[in-house]
């Protein structure tokens, strides 16, 4: 095979370690391509390397860029549209943006700044962009639920990150009860329905309309953990609201005497409550006192 390519581009030269080589069937060989010479003016340069063989050829395109270090674009990388818990670092862990010039190359060593608004705070702040044109800052949400803004700027460019905070989901003391009888303080049975009461348990009020109960509704999920048995299971949800969540206890907990229960909303994690379990914990739903609700999937008695 014989290698060909454009010789020079405004002072830059593309050269080969060898001009021709012989490769047998199933064999391989290395060809080193070197870009050398003086750096041309800012811009985008491209060409192609062609390998000519007997009866066939292979064309390999290449491109290289020369930047002008003039800031032209600011690109958010981390920390935008996060939702987390009040007073905690955003789930992404940091804000990050990248500054590039008109040719897409990073602008390095550029002075940058970050500013927090609405009661949020920032720390561990970059003062200049790194070798990849990136700057970072750790962002912490404020003490009240709502939206928080954090602004990063450099080279006359600016980007505003918007994140939100919610209260920590909290299960009330004695807040897990049999959903049929509302009896609290007693064990519940795997496979039965329970109601969880507390605060901040969901951002919305919503319920499922499917016979197959989902593992999450509007990012709310409930976990049941038995560390001693190496068991961690999700509950299947029926209804969620800020103060009440209804769900089915996992059948797989049969034989366990208790489980650690917590509610999570996306990246917000609630308190842990010990739930006693029993193989049997009967309870009947009623239309009215003494009138049992016994219906099939079509709500027929």
Architecture overview:
This protein is mainly β. Helices cover 0% and strands 47% of the residues. The protein has a five-stranded antiparallel sheet, with no helix packed on it. Strands 18, 19, 22, 23 and 24 form a five-stranded antiparallel sheet that branches. The radius of gyration is 31 Å and the shape is elongated. It starts with a strand and ends in a 9-residue tail after the last strand.
Task: Provide the residue-averaged pLDDT.
Answer: 91
DSSP summary, beta strand count? 26
Question: Sheet bearing the most strands, described?
Answer: 5 strands, antiparallel
> What series of H and E elements makes up the topology?
EEEEEEEEEEEEEEEEEEEEEEEEEE
Low-confidence runs of at least 5 consecutive residues: none
**Span from first to last CA?**
82 Å
What's the tally of helices? 0
Radius of gyration: 31 Å
Percentage of helical residues?
under 10%
Strand content: over 45%
Q: Would you tell me the structural class of the helices and strands?
A: mainly beta
Task: Kindly list the characteristics that best describe this protein.
single chain; 301 residues; mainly beta; five-stranded antiparallel beta sheet; elongated
Can you lay out the helices and strands and say which pair or pack?
Layout (H helix, E strand, L loop, with lengths): L1 E3 L3 E2 L2 E5 L16 E5 L5 E10 L4 E10 L6 E6 L4 E3 L9 E6 L11 E5 L4 E3 L10 E7 L5 E9 L2 E10 L3 E9 L14 E7 L6 E2 L12 E7 L4 E4 L1 E5 L3 E5 L9 E8 L2 E2 L3 E4 L9 E3 L2 E2 L9
Parallel strand pairs: 8-14
Antiparallel strand pairs: 1-5, 2-3, 3-4, 5-6, 7-9, 9-12, 10-13, 11-12, 13-14, 15-16, 16-21, 17-20, 18-19, 18-22, 20-21, 22-23, 22-24, 25-26
